[in-house]
């Protein structure tokens, strides 16, 4: 697949502000890590770049399973890679275990297109992204166009998702505690009623006169 190494190039531009004219395709998996500060809170993004060649598909799937964010990149100067990108995204979602991972379709090498070509590919990619419920971005690792903006967007949405999940988890924990306390209270009332009933019967027996 033609876009196999573009993920790493974008990550390299973002993490190190570097662009390599000569590079080797990703073999297996590459890894980068970046720290963010969002509203005073730390957030760490672990970026796994999996090779796009078919022979590495089994290796890649192991990293899809617990991914909170799935980013599939295609080459805007080769629109045919867009079809391959959507296949890889569907493949990743098929094995992902996160309930609703953030998904992105990213077109790179936007600097290689003239204005008319850019508009045409941009429109097509946006339509496809909408169909597969992914957020679409176009970037250029060579010029740095929107690379920083994109990763900041990923970090912001990741933080928002983490906060929502924490709130939901806390809500269910509090609800569970409330249910347990309610059940315990009912048990206490039941036992108290039983005790009162036994006491009343005992009192009746003590007042009974035998002829």
Protein described:
InterPro entries: P-loop_NTPase (IPR027417), Rab (IPR050227), Small_GTP-bd (IPR005225), Small_GTPase (IPR001806). It holds the Pfam family Ras. By secondary structure, this protein is of the alpha/beta class. It has a single domain (6-165), classed as 3-Layer(aba) Sandwich (Rossmann fold), CATH 3.40.50.300. Helix content is 53%, strand content 18%. The chain contains five helices and five strands, in the order H-E-E-H-E-H-E-H-E-H. The strands form two sheets. A three-stranded parallel beta sheet has the order 3-4-5, with helices on both faces. Strand 1 and strand 2 form a beta hairpin. The longest helix has 60 residues, at 147-206. Residues 1-6 and 206-211 have low confidence and may be disordered.
Question: Which key terms come to mind for this protein?
Answer:
GTPase activity, elongated, GTP binding, disordered C terminus, 5 strands, disordered N terminus, two-stranded antiparallel sheet, single chain, alpha/beta, Rossmann fold, 3-stranded parallel sheet, 211 residues
């Amino acid at each position: 697949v033609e876009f196999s190494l573009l993920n790493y190039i974008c990550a390299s531009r973002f993490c190190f502000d570097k662009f390599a004219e000569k590079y080797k395709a990703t073999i297996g998996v590459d890894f980068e890590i970046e720290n963010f500060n969002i509203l005073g809170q730390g957030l760490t993004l672990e970026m796994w770049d999996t090779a796009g060649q078919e022979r590495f598909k089994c290796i890649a799937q192991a990293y899809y399973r617990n991914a909170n964010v799935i980013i599939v990149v295609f080459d805007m100067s080769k629109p045919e890679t867009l079809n391959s990108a959507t296949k890889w995204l569907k493949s990743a979602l098929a094995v992902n275990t996160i309930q609703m991972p953030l998904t992105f379709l990213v077109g790179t090498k936007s600097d290689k297109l003239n204005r008319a070509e850019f508009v045409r590919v941009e429109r097509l990619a946006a339509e496809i992204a909408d169909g597969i419920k992914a957020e679409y971005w176009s970037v250029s690792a060579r010029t740095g166009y929107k690379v920083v903006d994109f990763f900041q967007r990923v970090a912001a949405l990741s933080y928002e998702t983490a906060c929502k999940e924490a709130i939901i988890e806390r809500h269910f924990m509090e609800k569970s505690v409330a249910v347990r306390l309610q059940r315990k209270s009912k048990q206490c009332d039941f036992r108290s009623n039983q005790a009162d009933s036994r006491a009343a019967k005992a009192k009746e027996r003590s007042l009974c006169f035998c002829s």
